[in-house]
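User: Predict the full complex structure for these chains.
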Amino acid sequence: MLGGFISDLEAGDVFKPVTYVLTAFMASEYAHGVEEAWEWYHSDATPTGRQMRPPTMIHVDKMRILEANCLKERRVSGEKGPHARVHYEYYARQHSPAYVGETLTVSGKITDRYIKRGRTYIDYYLEVRTSDDRLVTTYTDKTLLKYQKDGE
Amino acid sequence: MTAINDIKAKFKTGDVIHGPARVQTPERIEWYDSAMLSAATGGLAQVGINIHTDDEFAKSQGLKAVISDGMMMTGYCSEMMVRNFGMDYLTRGELRTKFIKPVYLKDTVHTLAKVLSTEPGENGTTVYKLDVWCENQDGVKVTDGDAKVTVGAV
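Assistant: Here is the predicted structure of the two-chain assembly.
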């Protein structure tokens, strides 16, 4: 169910897309956070002459789309849900770089929700496209909704 | 402005790629959390109390202590892939990471990859498949993964 906590998400939920303009600050700040010293994320001194974002920024896009779709639990705004989630699997396929100044749209859905060894997981599918519909990244993700087992 | 040149990878099956070893300091954990929030908001963001920053909160959630964010390990793996495969990874690369064990404060994380295969692809390309992982100071794998990159002309 959209609009609640992340733990309320169910298989088949389709996120309301999020659109934003990628800034130099976003690319460079995130690159610093993941210790990507490669110059391509910090300036236009790149093979294409344009500053680009680190490919793992798809995870920031996940946070953006959750922020817009799970209104009771918005980590970016500092609002926690009832339980800490633990990310279990990241899988990103790059199709083209995202450049600073481009308008990016993130869309996606919850593809599965299941219990494994007493813990509940959700699976995501997300994709990022530019305003001219160029595919940037496709992404799947498995997240454990609550680390603690019930009753612990 | 002078462009930083691209890289054209040339590895053979069995080659091991070593990334740097990084001690998990509170500063590194804060850098990541702050950067993630800042990139999401577009302005400098402060990190709050969470399982990556506060021992008591981490324990209240069933963890032994504060843990590093798994995306830090993914970032380290991705950085190693960019450093060795350049634009080919950024335009046609795939990376999977699984966070199989917690990474605690003061752990030393070493990032590695091993080339599993190199095969001819379409239109004169070479397709690399790799195991990618992070291990701690005891040699225990904490993040497991794989990667695929198509290198060369399309």
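The mean pLDDT of chain A is 93.
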